[in-house]
């Protein structure tokens, strides 16, 4: 059992347990045994923090079933190794080298010595943001559902938003609160915070702490922090302007709304399309050009070390800087006056190529299992599942059993990561002392 296989098997184990629990009569609103495919699909979507559903979560599942889904979302958002490490720490066990390597690989961090403190910080940070989000959502939901029901709604949607899961207890997701800047704003902030990664949050926290304490020491932000924040802001701005312009006159989405609401909903969709899965407008009614924009944003996804999926913002930034390097005739890939290591460039290329091939293969399989559905809808569904976004044009429940199985596998691959999945299947690479002669070839 290599580190990558441990992580992959761990996620499969959590999904299997979640499936069995969701099949119980106590988990359904009718009190009957749940369908195995529905239970498996829902458990996989929750553990992989995707949000794609084949049944309405709020009406199909009982309060216990909803609680199981929320627990699976929390475990999936934290990651199998994070949750397992927390359990080991609570039991008083010391972390071995294999445990530290697994944490390093699952969180995509270079630190080994501070694994235990890192896990504690992640848990504390997660609880703080989730409880704060629930507290802020509570007044708005209380006005509509009373104190008891609103408390559960606030907690559920706060955890779902921070973990970029996109599960909602409302049948229309957040369409009913599309004109509520308070609900949309809080959900969007939780999604952004959960999607930028723990390292960025910690650096920002340290910077704010020093400012509050009056320390004059200048903090040098890491290259990771600069790349993630600048790329995320750029994608947010571009997505907002794109959706605003394309859907401005669409009578089924932004057309009837006043100007400020159009801008608000366009910005909300720009945030959500990256990885979360909530929606405040009917995705199936969007123009084809908007769906392609959404596919691009979903494919990029969130940032490394976060609860989101996709190829990640840093990957896209590295490839863009590579392109700039080629156009300028230079030999070094630079970002903020720092040279990016060749191994990171190679990893970025590998992630994009492998992810693109996976999406193409999944789209082909869906077109074979469900030939009656439009191609753009199938492609949207494939990218949404792979990037663990959870948005759909409304075809998820219409897919055949084989089509749903394809989506289940895609969500799993997208959550564990395509390179980690390949490493688990092929095994760890063996070191070699052989170096072959170099020879040039034509490119482009």
TrEMBL record:
It comes from Leptothoe kymatousa TAU-MAC 1615. Keywords: Cell membrane, Ion transport, Membrane, Potassium, Potassium transport, Transmembrane, Transmembrane helix, Transport. It is found in: Cell membrane. It is a multi-pass membrane protein. This is ATPase. The chain crosses the membrane at residues 7-27, 33-55, 67-92, 112-138, 150-170, 182-206, 227-246, 291-311, 345-366, 378-399, 406-426. It comes from the Bacteria. The lineage of its organism: Bacteria, Bacillati, Cyanobacteriota, Cyanophyceae, Nodosilineales. Pfam families: TrkH (PF02386). Coiled coil: none annotated. Its main location: membrane.
């Amino acid at each position: 059992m290599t580190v990558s296989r441990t992580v992959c098997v761990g996620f499969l184990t959590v999904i299997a347990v979640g499936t069995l629990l969701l099949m119980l009569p106590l988990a359904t609103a009718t009190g009957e045994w749940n369908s195995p495919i529905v239970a498996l699909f829902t458990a996989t979507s929750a553990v992989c923090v995707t949000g794609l559903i084949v049944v309405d979560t709020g009406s199909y599942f009982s309060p216990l079933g909803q609680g199981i889904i929320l627990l699976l979302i929390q475990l999936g958002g934290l990651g199998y190794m994070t949750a397992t490490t927390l359990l080991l720490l609570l039991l008083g066990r010391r972390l071995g080298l294999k445990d530290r390597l697994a944490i390093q690989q699952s969180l995509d961090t270079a630190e080994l010595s501070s694994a235990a403190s890192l896990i504690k910080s992640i848990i504390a940070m997660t609880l703080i943001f989730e409880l704060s989000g629930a507290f802020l959502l509570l007044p708005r939901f209380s006005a509509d559902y009373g104190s008891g029901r609103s408390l559960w709604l606030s907690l559920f949607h706060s955890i779902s938003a921070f973990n970029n899961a996109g599960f909602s207890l409302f049948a229309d997701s957040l369409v009913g609160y599309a004109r509520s800047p308070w609900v949309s704003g809080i959900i969007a902030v939780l999604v952004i915070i959960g999607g930028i990664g723990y390292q960025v949050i910690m650096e920002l926290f340290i910077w704010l702490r020093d400012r509050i304490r009056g320390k004059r020491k200048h903090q040098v932000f890491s290259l990771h922090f600069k790349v993630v924040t600048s790329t995320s802001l750029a994608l947010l701005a571009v997505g907002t302007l794109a959706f605003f312009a394309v859907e401005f006159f669409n009578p089924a989405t932004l057309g009837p709304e006043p100007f400020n609401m159009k801008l608000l909903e366009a910005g909300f969709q720009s945030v959500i399309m990256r990885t979360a899965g909530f929606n405040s407008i009917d995705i199936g009614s969007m123009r084809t050009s908007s769906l392609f924009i959404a596919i691009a944003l979903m494919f990029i996804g969130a940032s490394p070390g976060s609860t989101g999926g996709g190829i990640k913002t840093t990957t896209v930034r590295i490839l863009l800087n590579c392109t700039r390097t080629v156009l300028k005739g230079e030999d070094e890939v630079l970002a903020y006056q720092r040279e990016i290591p060749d191994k990171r460039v190679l990893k970025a290329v590998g992630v994009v190529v492998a992810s693109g091939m996976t999406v193409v293969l999944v789209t082909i399989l869906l077109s074979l299992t469900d030939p009656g559905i439009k191609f753009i809808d199938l492609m949207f569904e494939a990218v949404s599942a792979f990037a663990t976004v959870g948005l759909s044009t409304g075809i998820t429940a219409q897919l055949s059993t084989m089509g749903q199985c394809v989506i289940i596998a895609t969500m799993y691959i997208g959550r564990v990561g395509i390179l980690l999945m390949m490493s688990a299947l092929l095994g760890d690479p063996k070191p070699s002392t052989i170096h072959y002669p170099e020879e040039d070839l034509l490119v482009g």
